[in-house]
Every structure is written in C-alpha cells, then in structure tokens.
Model the fold of this input.
Amino acid sequence: MLVLSRKCGQSVVVDDNVEVTVLEIRGGRVKLGFRGPAHVPIHREEVYQSVKEFRDALYHAECA
Done:
C-alpha cells in the first residue's frame, strides 16, 4: 500500500488517467474528488463489494 500526505487542493494521478484531488478536510473527514474517463468505474468500497458479489453470483449461476 502506498501512503501519501496531501494538502487541500493537491492531487494524485493513478495510471495517467484517474486524478484524485483533496477537496476539503474537516475534523476527521476528508472529501475527495475523482476525475477520469467515463469507461473507468469508480465506486466506494462497499458499493464495489456489492457489485462484485452480484457478478460472482451471476457467473456461478451461469456455470451451473
């Protein structure tokens, strides 16, 4: 895992096409903005896990 420190307004670029910017820091919360191509899905982890479980269930149902 890469760990970085960023200040408000600073960004990180992932794989030349996804930019993550720190928009706001308030108390114990950090607000992030994501910019990337439309074909690259960006999800919160809990949403990603739900999507992954749904896809896995579909795959196993089709193979049965």
The chain has a mean pLDDT of 93. The chain has one helix and three strands.
